[in-house]
Amino acid sequence: MSPDVPPPELSVPEGWRLVAEDFRTPLEVSVASIETSTRIYEDVDLRERLADVTGVDTTWRFAFASRLRIRPRAPPSRALTRLVTDRAESKFEDVLRNRGFDGIDRADSHRIDVGEATTSATRYRARVGVGGLDLPVEAFFAVWPAERDYLLGGGAYPLSLPEPETFDAERGREELFSLIRSIR
Predict the structure, then answer these.
(1) In what order do the strands lie in the sheet with 101-114?
(2) Which residues contact 146 (CB under 8 A, 6 or more apart)?
(3) Which region, left, alpha or beta, applies to residue 140 given φ > 0 means left and ψ of -120 to 50 means alpha?
(4) Can you list the alpha helix ranges (DSSP code H) found in 62-142?
(5) Which position among 1, 72, 84, 89 has the lowest Cβ density within 10 Å, counted as fewest Cβ atoms?
(6) Residue boundaries of the structural domains of the chain
(7) Residue 129: which H helix or E strand, with range?
(8) pLDDT tens-digit series, residues 100-146
């Protein structure tokens, strides 16, 4: 990780663990650069429980937090925030595709409080094939300015699970929102 772009901090529930950390410079030209620091977490308890039931060892629920820094540093503006959000949402859809999500659809958006601000979290609906099963999933993604950086957060969870397991999708949504709200 670059000491110049510290990774975001967040409150992770019991049963979740950090599975990846990444630092990237997606843009670097003579007059400007963009750097990101990302942490990805997984619900390991759910993974282990479902591996026993399905025989498939895979990620069922994940969340991430990123810090994006633009240089030269300047206060966020409405136009810059919209540009960052549009590009980051497109990248998030790529991440979902790379994780095996199909039929990705931007369903709607929800307003959520993050720190002292309010931002829009885009909701996605999709399907994912796991061990011969085709399951509905929901994902959320949000971007908001934080001082002179941007914070990004999101994740995905199943709307249903293979029998005999059950999953409360409403609780899954609230847990994801809680993770997003805790990003600093």
Answers:
(1) 16-29, 32-43, 62-71, 149-158, 133-146, 117-130, 101-114
(2) 67, 115, 184
(3) beta
(4) 78-98
(5) 72
(6) 16-181
(7) strand 117-130
(8) 999 999 999 999 999 888 999 999 999 998 888 899 999 999 999 99
Q: Are strands 32-43 and 149-158 parallel, antiparallel or unpaired?
A: unpaired
Give the Cα separation of 87 and 85 in Å (integer): 6
Q: Which residue has the tokens 């409080």?
A: 113
- Write down the residue that tokens 């409150």 correspond to: 11
Right CATH for 16-181 from 1.20.1070, 3.40.1000, 1.10.3110, 1.10.3470: 3.40.1000
- What would the pLDDT profile of 18-70 be if each residue is shown by its tens digit? 999 999 998 889 899 999 999 999 999 999 988 888 888 989 999 999 999 99
Q: Which two tokens stand for residue 10?
A: 């967040």
Contact 64, 38 (CB under 8 A): yes
DSSP state of 138: E
For 6-67, give the DSSP string.
Answer: PPP-----TTEEEEEEEEEEEEEETTEEEEEEEEEEEEHHHHHHHHHHHS----S-EEEEEE
pLDDT tens profile 164-174: 888 899 999 99
